Amino acid sequence: MNNIFVYIELENGAVADVSLELLTKGRELADELGVKLEAVVLGHGVAGIEKELAKYGADTVWVADDEIFAPFRTLPHTAVLCGLIRQEKPQIALFGATPVGRDFAPRVSSALHSGLTADCTQLVIGDHTDPKTKTDYKNLLYQIRPAFGGNIIATIVNPDHRPQMATVREGVMRKEYAAKAGAGEVKPIDWRPMVQDTDLAVKIIDRQIEERKINIKGAGVIVAGGYGMGSKENFKLVHELAEVLGAEVGASRAAVDAGFAEHARQVGQTGVTVRPKLYIACGISGQIQHTAGMDQSSMIISINTDAEAPICKIADFAITGDVNEVIPKMIKYYKQN
Ligand code: FAD
What we know:
Layout: E1 4-8, E2 10-11, E3 14-15, H1 17-33, E4 37-43, H2 49-55, E5 60-65, H3 74-88, E6 92-96, H4 99-112, E7 117-120, E8 122-129, E9 136-147, E10 152-156, E11 164-168, E12 185-188, E13 221-225, H5 232-245, E14 248-251, H6 253-257, E15 278-282, H7 288-291, E16 299-304, H8 310-314, E17 317-320, H9 323-336
Bound molecules: flavin-adenine dinucleotide.
The site of flavin-adenine dinucleotide (FAD) has 30 residues, from helix 6, helix 7, strand 16 and helix 9.
């Protein structure tokens, strides 16, 4: 049986969270299929990285360690990954839906004629019968993602081409050590024959990294405000409540579009996906495009004047009330306690 590849993205030498999330999911899929989970690392100075990857279940760690791979450059990465996939023939190859993954995964899939489902939010193994030919396919990767503006959840399968390739949104999958660590066996990639001179034609002369000032992705508590906050001025209540709770501030798209909050705070399908321990939704109706980015939160509290708003259906506690009355009371309470 062919194995599962997970491309390991590096951020300043550290493994990106999304890659650990993909290893966690990949381990689950590999166990179900009875195959091995293989991590692919292209970087520089990555000796010892296999120890961390093994904890998340990687059986094998393919490594190409050379300065041409760091910082990330599209063409050598594409060339080596294509070469390795041709050599090892995995049945599944997974990437984070990050700027890096979105850049080179489509190039890899195009070069291999394999197809790619972008921005998946769930991956499941299942069977499929072709409605025209009635051919049965066993153990395909169901690549699940919102489509048509989030109005439907599409399940996409790729019966005929290998590998089945997907990019997966950051933060939608759990990141957990495997119940049983993988072997983390390092296998060097014989990458030199895979890279042509033309792949190295683009040289990076200077690189400036702008620190993200707002980072709600990994926040444990998020207080999010919606259009129901009424104005930018009133949105300050959301910031105040967040401050007393030591939380980050999130926002719905309607709040961002109205200028109440910065785009980096937008939660949802076209914003960030979050899974905090506590998510307090203030004046947010809970349209599917918003809930797609937060419904995995451990606890959801909504504050809304409309008891029938969709957010109340997924909330653990739904407070029916005006944000202008409820939030100041909460701030007062938490300041005192
Ligand atoms: P509304 O839907 O206007 O809801 C406001 C809520 O506030 C209402 O429920 C109302 O009862 C309540 N309210 C009003 N006054 C008060 C008060 N004083 N006190 C308490 N409650 C009050 N949306 C996102 O959030 N994130 C996305 O990533 C996203 N991506 C999208 C992608 C596409 C392709 C499309 C088509 C849409 C997308 N949207 C996204 C928009 C989404 O469909 C909704 O329009 C948006 O989430 C609504 O934001 P809202 O809940 O703040 O506003």
